[in-house]
Model the fold of this input.
Amino acid sequence: MNRLNILTFPDPRLRKKANPVEVFDESLKKKANDMLFTMYEDKGIGLAATQVNIHERLIVIDLTEDRSEPLVIINPEFRVLDETQEISKEGCLSIPTFQQEVPRAKRIELEYQDLTGKKESLVAEGLLGYCIQHEIDHLNGKLLVDYSSSLKRNRIKEKLLKSKDVKNKN
Ligand code: ZN
Done:
């Protein structure tokens, strides 16, 4: 398994809209496995393909502490079952050190395909529901910073650009 490079804000590639997955083959399985490995290494609970510069509608999630329940979600579509907005405080592997409160739907129904192309569905609320909504935002080129003030967005942008400069010089 390979650890993939995670793009960080404000990399413009994070704004690309991902394409539907049409072929369910070994290379798709490899991408999902590499993404899970990368997510575990970076101690995340979710990762969208867009974040590793793969522009396909593919997400991995694992909310368990012992990382024992990997969920691979392909071509996700969700509908809101309960429109109550809850406030979720979120971080993102593509925006290190940044946290943002985001309004998320309380309960959703997700339809998706698994690695073999089989159609699946699940109902999610709480952390799993927020995480799915966060990762689908990525597939649509949307980021946590879009929910913040422009002041806060510019501040994190400058901070991350500066830390990238330092990394490049070393
Ligand atoms: Zn994220």
